Amino acid sequence: LEQIRGNNTVDQSTFMAMLQNDFLLRDEYSKFKLDVKISDDGQGIDATRFFVHTNNISNQNIKKDMMVDFRSLAEDLELVTYNPSFIFYDQYVTVVPATLQSIGISLGAVFVV
């Protein structure tokens, strides 16, 4: 890694060689081995994952907005976002509009009758 310090351009083959032969072999970075799936030919990265930690998520609306924003960013970048809590946040996205629609239809029916 010292050989590229200060160099802003590294070609793909150099990057892959350093990733496999230096970075992932160091004790302090070996924990990332399970987070990078290197292609069979060793010349590219097939998949990777990373953890995003959030702070100051104080209410359900902020949680819902966070999930929607993550998914929007992921769609633009062809990524998949997953968090077990998203199952619950999805309810905030779908339940409120569905409830308002049902109430609106019911009120409309009451006024017509």
Explain how this protein is built:
The chain has 113 residues and is mainly alpha-helical. Helix content is 49%, strand content 6%. It is built from three helices and two strands, in the order αββαα. Strands 1-2 form a two-stranded antiparallel ribbon. Helix 2 packs across helix 3. The radius of gyration is 23 Å and the shape is elongated. The protein starts with 11 loop residues before the first helix and ends with a helix. The model has no long low-confidence stretch (mean pLDDT 85).
> What percentage of amino acids are in beta strands?
5-15%
Tell me, rounded to a whole number, the average pLDDT: 85
Helical content class? 40-55%
Strand order, sheet with most strands: 1-2
Kindly report how far apart the N and C termini lie: 76 Å
Helix/strand order: HEEHH
Largest sheet: 2 strands, antiparallel
Q: What is the strand tally?
A: 2
Rounded Rg: 23 Å
Structural category is mainly alpha
Low-confidence stretches at least 5 residues in length (pLDDT < 50)?
none
Name the overall outline.
elongated
Q: How many DSSP helices?
A: 3
Name the features.
mainly alpha; two-stranded antiparallel sheet; 2 strands; 49% helix
Secondary-structure map:
Layout: H1 12-21, E1 36-38, E2 45-48, H2 60-77, H3 86-112
Antiparallel strand pairs: 1-2
Summarize the structure.
The protein has 113 residues and is mainly alpha-helical. 49% of the residues lie in helices and 6% in strands.
